[in-house]
Each structure stands twice: as C-alpha cells, then as structure tokens.
C-alpha cells in the first residue's frame, strides 16, 4: 500500500454482473479485520492500538487541554517507530493520526515523522469508531459475526490452513485447524476463485457448480468437470467435495476439501511427492 493511501482497506465492487447473479458485496473494515489471517490480524491490532491511542489523545487536544499535556507520542510494535506531534499542530490543522504502510511493508503512524496524515474532518466518524472498537475490545468480542471470505474466492490458503467459502453468503464453509509458527504464515491467497462476472450455475439438480480455476498446485478439481459429485475420505462424512488430490508416493491421507465443514486430512498430502488429479471416488 502506498504512503498516499489510507490504511483502511476499501474493497471495490466489480461493476459487471451477469443477469440473475448475486456476487458478494464489499467488506467493511471490521469484516476485513475479522476474516484476516493471523499475519494480517497482528498488523490490524498494531494499527488499531496506535489509532485508538491517537483517537483518545486527539479528543483531549480538541477540548483545549493545555499544550504541555498534549504532546502525542505513538509507538508501534517493538518501539523502533516512535513519533511526536504537539497539541498545537492538532489545534491548528485539525489533523488526525492514521496508520498505513510503505510500499516495502514498513508500518508507520504520524505526520511528525514525515508520514501520511489526513485532516480530522476527512475521517468519517463511523470509521473512527470502528477502529476504536477494535482497539478497545478483544478479537472474540469484535468479531461476533462469522468471518467472511475475500470476494470471488471459493477457497483460500494462508500458508497454514485452507478455508472454503460460500459464494452466495461470502462466509466460510470450513477451515482446517493446523497450528503454525509465525514464519509459516503468509497473506491469504485464493486457491480457487470464480469469474468476476459470476457465471450462472450450469449443473444438474443435486450437483454443485465450481466456476473458475484452481491456483494451487496442490489442489485439483475432482472429477474433471465443472460440477462436483459426492466423494468421501475414509472415516469422514462429507456432503459435497470442493476438490481432491492424491499423491505419489501414496499417503494414508488424501487431501479433501469438504463443503460440510468437517475436519479434513490432518497431515495433508505429501507435498514433496507428485500430485495428480483424483478422477473417481475412493
């Protein structure tokens, strides 16, 4: 994200929609926060803490508290980024601190260090309140609604866990629950996505349409058709499989992604082996 951009993510709505099709709408800041990976969540918490502190201090500045009590110092993360802005600067320009990031991914807050700043009145009140809520409350209280998926994704992978998405509601249908170290985590990426124009469902009754393409080398359509059939892993009860793969050499656990949300393969396929599409139920 560039310096000239506000950190709060605005998800644009694709303009072209096919007749009779319903695409997921844009995510709010809160929804973006609540569907984030562990990596993104940590960034959100850092930003919201900084802006929450600024919100409190700025409100005091605007009430006219003496300047010697209004110097603002905001520290981010390990303290390597620390900036000061005195109360006079706020009173004169009605400025407001807002978090952002450089193109290289460095996080910052504060115009006192030459960073991005917006005038106080340019920040919508609901946006400020939303950030302050994230700052004040723990994740479980903020994210009371179900997490939502990125637009047009039928599934995504964050370097640790795979999650499936309901195209109609935008909510998660399942997520694996593998624990990973921070070094393993990465920004979520779609492993399967739909055409942004939302193709109509061509499948027969009882089948599930899988539009779009798979972007992960480890997940394959099964069978080779846009319409899914019912496949189940040994010992599991799945309703509709969103994708499947078997590996050579054979492992005891083939990867299956279940729309029903049941726990899937615990150890996953052998990623060092050659993965091939699985064309038939096992």
TrEMBL record:
Positions of the NTR domain: 21-149
Signal peptide region: 1-20
Keywords: Disulfide bond, Signal
InterPro entries (UniProt xref): Netrin_domain (IPR001134), TIMP-like_OB-fold (IPR008993)
Disulfide bond is among the record's keywords: yes
Gene3D superfamilies: 2.40.50.120
Name by which UniProt lists this protein: NTR domain-containing protein
